[in-house]
Give the backbone structure.
Amino acid sequence: MNTEFNHIFIPGDLRLPVLLLLHGTGGDERDLVELGQSVSPCSAILSVRGKVLENGMPRFFRRLAEGVFDLEDLKFRTEELSAFIDEARNEYELGNARIVALGYSNGANIAASLLLSKPDALDGAVLLRAMVPFVPQTLPDLTDKKILMLSGLMDPIIPADNSTRLSEMLKDAGATMTFSMKPLGHGLTQADFSGIKNWLELTYKG
Ligand code: MLT
């Protein structure tokens, strides 16, 4: 397993959660930095580029068609990302700082996969336009995880019922879920940005 990832690390106040930024298909590690810095200006940032290329577009795992995932690759890539997070914790001396994923689309899907199969990797997650990455045989224990999911009723890529199913699965696993389904599409809007900022402030204040 090659746990090297192209990434950006920006130091910050480790009493706040470190934001693990995971971009959407065709993005890279620069995409979400401005968003991360605006929703939690003092947080450290670890922003990662997915290693899989689909027609030259970076992703975090392979897919066979839109919304149809290569589950073997997903498993491998999820383990690889989890190992990278452990290494980054040492490399950047993050100690016991909480790590919260902020993922969009394909990045949200691998964050959901981390929660379902490598729950120790994350303390929580903001999942933007996420869907069920895979159905685990047994649910992990997510009782200490806090998760915000923002989904779009008119999203042409992520069916609303699939997003709802993911939120129910995470809730059944014990996570403290905040789930919002608004009349939005796949793209992010100002409403998403303020939703994330408010949730982070409420969840991690003090
Ligand atoms: C995925 O492949 O993870 C989802 O379909 C979202 C996307 O298009 O990236």
Remarks:
- The mean pLDDT is 97.
- Residues 24-25, 63, 66-67, 105-106, 109, 157 surround D-malate (CB under 6 Å).
